[in-house]
C-alpha cells in the first residue's frame, strides 16, 4: 500500500527522488503543454486554418464574379477577332487600335470627338492615329469648317480592313453559336443590352444611338 509519509520522509532526508507519477518531469510538462486543448500552439493552428479558408473565399469572390466573367469573354472574343484579321493580311493591327476602328465609322470625325467616343485622352488618340496613318489605314485632313482642326477618315485600305473585320466577327459569332447555342447567345446579348440601357451607360456615339 502506498505510504505518502514514508515517501515525503525520503525526500526530506535526501533520499531517492519522488516517483515520476507524482512529480511530472519537464518533458511531460512540455508534452502536456503541446497537446493541451486551447494551448497557444493549438490556437495558432486553428487561426491559420481559418485565415487560409478566408483567403480562399476572398480569392474565389475576386475571380468568380460578373466583371471577371465579362472580361474573360471579351478577351476571348478580341483574341479570336485579331487572329482572324491577321490571317487576312492585317498582322500589323494591335488590340489598342480597336479604340479607333470601333469608333471611327465610315464617315469623317474630328480627333476630339473620336477621343470622346473612345473615352481616352486626345494625346492617346493622337498617338494611335499616327500609327494607323503610318500603316495606311486612316487619313488626316484639314477640317473644311475649321482650319485648326483635323478630320479623320478611313483610307481605301482602311475600308477594306473594316469589310474583312466584319466577316471575321460573323465567323467568331458562329463559333460561339456552335459552343453556346444561338438562342442562348441571343438571350445573353439581349440581357446585356437591357442592363446597359437601364444603367444608362453610353456605349455608342450619339450619332449612332438612334440606329441601334
TrEMBL record:
<dbReference type="InterPro" id="IPR023187">
    <property type="entry name" value="Tscrpt_reg_MarR-type_CS"/>
</dbReference>
<dbReference type="GO" id="GO:0003700">
    <property type="term" value="F:DNA-binding transcription factor activity"/>
</dbReference>
<dbReference type="GO" id="GO:0003677">
    <property type="term" value="F:DNA binding"/>
</dbReference>
<feature type="domain" description="HTH marR-type">
    <location>
        <begin position="63"/>
        <end position="197"/>
    </location>
</feature>
<keyword id="KW-0238">DNA-binding</keyword>
<keyword id="KW-0804">Transcription</keyword>
<feature type="region of interest" description="Disordered">
    <location>
        <begin position="1"/>
        <end position="51"/>
    </location>
</feature>
<keyword id="KW-0805">Transcription regulation</keyword>
<dbReference type="InterPro" id="IPR036388">
    <property type="entry name" value="WH-like_DNA-bd_sf"/>
</dbReference>
<dbReference type="InterPro" id="IPR000835">
    <property type="entry name" value="HTH_MarR-typ"/>
</dbReference>
<dbReference type="InterPro" id="IPR036390">
    <property type="entry name" value="WH_DNA-bd_sf"/>
</dbReference>
<dbReference type="Pfam" id="PF12802">
    <property type="entry name" value="MarR_2"/>
</dbReference>
<protein>
    <submittedName>
        <fullName>MarR family transcriptional regulator</fullName>
    </submittedName>
</protein>
